[in-house]
Input
Amino acid sequence: MSYAETLLPEFDQEMASTRKVLERCPDDKLDWQPHPKSHTIGWNANHLANLPDWLVHALATPELDIAPVGGEPLTPPKANTIREILAMFDRNVAAAREALTRADDEHMAHQWTLLHGGKPIFTMARSDVVRRIVLNHIIHHRAILCVYLRLNNIPVPGMYGPSGDE
Output
């Protein structure tokens, strides 16, 4: 089995779980944050919707500079409603899934670099970027969003079985 073939079932499950969490976010709570140092529900939801696009970048390019010297810094898209966030998420998930299905094992073994101002933040195999930077990062922010939902008395959906609300 190829790397993509082994990863796709997990990818599909994690994306379905992430979508269930995003669906629970109410438009009237997008500006809510538990602490001034914390991001808002809307920021986390937008970040989750955009993260699958990082997988596309990692598989299509050898590097990404998020603040290139003399250039415009990377500005992630910002949707203002859950409907828009879900649409962005769905587009990015479809593109990421397609990119994964096209990537062979040799391509996944190639190095990919994230830069800031021309300086490397990290360099790792694309397969590690997909797992550690994209999937694990999505799971991390999804968990944050679940806590935010709980703090607002919004039922949390089950992901690996029923939640305490089901």
The mean pLDDT is 96. The longest strand covers residues 119-125. DSSP finds five helices and three strands in the chain. The chain has one domain: 11-151.
